Amino acid sequence: MSDYDILFNKAKEFHGHVCPGIVLGTRLTLAGLREVGINPHEPIHNLIVFMEIDRCGTDAVQAITGCSLGHRSLKHKDFGKFAATFVNTTTGKTIRVSVHEKNRAEHDKIDRKELITVLSCIPEEEILKIEQVRLAIPREDLPGLPVGNAVCSVCGEQISDNRQIVRDGAVFCRNCAGESYYTVIPRKSA
């Protein structure tokens, strides 16, 4: 069994089914790990991956690398691109791998099963763009214990890793500072 087959099966099992995103995510991960000098068959403790999309390929990256949000080794940058940046935290080598389907219009004409086969076999240089990049990771974004904790002066919730906003000396969480992604619906009294 090839590296691709072993890792593809791992990604497929984690994701729950086969789709083009799992194929591309597996290929992207193999290229990224190779380029930063990490063996995907050994425990990985010195890697941070920045994913630019929150779709199927991210599951392949997570399954193969073991990186996760909870370990603070998987970061999501919502750019909507099928791309990931791999950072070897031991060597500092940083590589961005992106999918660039030159033949996308052709691929859209074939059925899903055939597409999965085509995407798994197409030469890497025809489907992936690999670039060495520079990336500064703030200390509060690195894996490990939280760096700096604060308590919001409005809601009383704890804010970790220096994510608080300070205005006129008062500490606010992003929600209470007006940057919330949700709206609280007041409970109806009985």
Automatic annotation (TrEMBL):
Organism of origin = Methanoregula boonei (strain DSM 21154 / JCM 14090 / 6A8)
| Domain Formylmethanofuran dehydrogenase subunit E: from-to ranges | 14-113
Provide this UniProt record's keywords sorted from A to Z: Metal-binding, Zinc, Zinc-finger
Any one GO molecular-function label of the UniProt entry: zinc ion binding
Would I find Signal among this entry's keywords? no
> Zinc as a keyword?
yes
Q: What is this protein called?
A: Formylmethanofuran dehydrogenase, subunit E region
Q: Where is the Zinc finger DksA/TraR C4-type domain?
A: 149-182
